[in-house]
Write a structure and sequence with these properties.
- The protein contains 18 helices and 12 strands.
- It is α+β, with helices and mostly antiparallel strands.
- It folds into 2 domains: 293 residues, Periplasmic binding protein-like II (D-Maltodextrin-Binding Protein, domain 2, 3-Layer(aba) Sandwich); 219 residues, D-Maltodextrin-Binding Protein, domain 2.
- Strands 2-1-3-10-4 form a 5-stranded mixed beta sheet, sandwiched between helices.
- It is globular and about 65 Å long.
- It starts with 5 loop residues before the first helix and ends with a helix.
């Protein structure tokens, strides 16, 4: 599983910054632009799928669905259940295109994990696996042609005219999944309603099946061992205490904080401390960008001070995110911004210190507003050319893949075949064999077709899992949503690739001292006149359409 949810990160940072990692693409479907008919205004809205939670093995630490705290497991379930009743497939071949963060897998004929999954699903899977770095360009090429796969994984927000493309080429799944119809697919019914809403409707219909992610999105990850020595107890430090900790931890070739070129000075991890809205705020139906927050200049001024005081890693404007992560792992950087889901690799990799997400620090006179994520990392759509019987069969396949933690199906997809890809440790945790380090769900990402709701579990990392659970208990109840989640804006799809880099440049210019903090007002005015105001208007109209029914 990747260590960062691209969609969650893109939308969490606010509307303009999303384009920083999404270059301009070819126009969807070979046309000259969006049809403009992708909104949910003035159309009948399909009811969301009925949420029917599935009961699995009792967690060691009970979560809270209302606040977003996840169930946590300190040991692997000793008794598994069945997630499905039969082999779902019809023996046919399905063409599938997904993103991948892994390496090229062995061919199907030599890949025992691939073969085991096909046998369990009852279909052949003809994968087109697209590396994350090539995803947007490959998808734009596919969109412009006619050779679309049967099943397509879309990392939302990464392609121009995305909704237009989906409406023109993909299956409206409303009759199969809307309301109680989803009961035919009990594992899909187990996907939280918030994740369906985050994908959103397309012209009133349900087209995308979410790949679930937990409520937390980004966080400021810290070297908890070092920060505890500076007085961090797991509760929020004041801003002055946080600053003193960074100064104390900056010496020699070690730095209190780091950032990467993709996300200017990691400001997304600092915005919640300053009470800045999560992307947008809405009041009386009116949308306002987070960039207009009265606290935004104050945050930029603080980050500028941290840099001028030499507390940032010197290459923070040029280093790639993956390389910055390495600097955190080896102790060069003591804190940095990453996704919450980074724990999936971080807890396995870091052995010399306790790596934990930090509760937001508190500037004087400000109440922090932690940000929630989207609740999904992407979504799955089905080719419109599929017949109704074929659609039902494919949905059964996806239902199998969504079997929850604690089932035989989940174990097969996530860990492979016992004795071949994993064995159980003395503590009962599934542990990869040598073959399992290459033949696995990372390199053959079935979970980007569909996946179960996530729980907190990491083999051999009970202390880390407990710390994550305690962090969620403190932070999740205070999280605020981005009210634009799942809403459509045609202006944004056409203007984001221009607005995003402009905002990023403005942030970088101020923090590095090339521009005064007062220049932020001009950057915001340029954003608003360049499409921000129009986007806000379209979000408001969509919001009204989605909340009045």
């Amino acid at each position: 599983m990747p260590d960062i949810s691209r969609r969650s990160l893109l939308r969490s940072i606010g509307v303009a910054s999303a384009a920083m990692a999404a270059p301009s693409l070819l126009t969807a479907c070979g046309g000259s632009g969006s049809s403009g008919d992708v909104s949910n205004r003035g159309v009948e809205l399909a009811p969301w799928p009925t949420y029917i939670p599935r009961t699995g093995p009792a967690p060691d630490l009970k979560g809270n669905p209302q606040t977003g705290v996840q169930d946590a497991y300190l040991k692997y379930p000793s008794q598994l259940t069945k997630g499905t009743s039969d082999v779902p497939g019809d023996g046919s071949t399905l063409k599938v295109m997904t993103i991948t963060y892994g390496v090229v897998p062995e061919p199907e004929g030599q890949n025992r994990y691939w073969q085991a999954m096909e046998k369990a699903l009852g279909v052949k899977i003809d994968f087109t696996l697209v590396p994350a770095a090539d995803y947007t360009s490959k998808l734009s090429t596919v969109m412009a042609g006619n050779d679309l796969p049967d099943i397509l994984n879309i990392i939302g927000g990464s392609i121009a005219h995305e909704a237009d493309f989906v409406l023109k080429t993909m299956t409206n799944l409303s009759e199969y999944l809307s309301g109680d119809a989803v009961k035919d697919y009990p594992n899909l019914a187990n996907l939280p309603t918030a994740s369906w809403k985050a994908v959103g409707r397309f012209r009133g219909g349900i087209y995308g099946i979410p790949i679930h992610r937990p409520k937390p999105s980004t966080a400021l990850w810290i070297n908890g061992t070092e920060f505890k020595q500076q007085g961090y107890t797991g509760d929020g430090l004041s801003r002055d205490e946080f600053t003193r900790a960074l100064k104390s931890l900056t010496h020699g070739r070690k730095y209190g904080i780091g950032a990467s070129k993709e996300w200017p000075f990691g400001w997304i991890a600092h915005g919640p401390s300053y009470g800045i809205p999560n992307g947008w705020s809405v009041s009386n139906g009116k949308f306002t960008s987070s960039y207009e927050s009265e606290h935004f200049p104050e945050m930029l001024s603080y980050l500028k001070t941290l840099r001028s005081d030499g507390l940032y890693f010197p290459d923070s404007t040029s280093i790639a995110a993956v390389d910055l992560k390495t600097r955190f792992y080896n102790g060069t950087v003591q804190s940095y911004m990453d996704s919450f889901s980074a724990y999936l690799t971080t807890l396995k990799t870091v052995q010399d210190f306790e790596a934990v997400p930090m509760v937001p620090y508190v500037p004087e006179g400000v109440t922090p507003t932690p940000w929630s994520g989207l609740g999904y990392s992407g979504y799955t759509v089905l080719n419109k050319k599929l017949s109704k019987p074929k659609v039902k069969m494919v949905l059964q396949v996806l239902d199998y893949l969504a079997s929850p933690f604690g089932t035989e199906e989940y174990q097969l997809m996530h860990y492979g075949v016992e004795g071949v890809h994993f064995t159980f440790s003395k503590d009962g945790d599934p542990t990869p064999t040598k073959l399992g380090t290459t033949e696995n769900v990372t390199n053959l990402p079935f979970y980007y077709m569909c996946d179960a709701p996530q729980v907190l579990y990491m083999p051999g990392a009970q202390t880390g899992v407990k710390a994550l659970y305690e962090w969620e208990q403190k932070v999740c109840p205070k999280m605020i949503d981005d009210p634009s989640k799942g809403l459509r804006s045609d202006t944004w799809t056409t203007r984001s690739q221009i607005l995003g880099p402009e905002i990023a440049d403005a942030i970088t210019g101020i923090v590095t001292g090339r521009q005064p903090v007062s220049s932020w007002d001009g950057a915001v005015k340029k954003f608003k006149s360049g499409g921000g105001d129009k986007t806000a208007q379209e979000f408001a109209e969509e919001y009204a359409a989605n909340t009045t029914k």
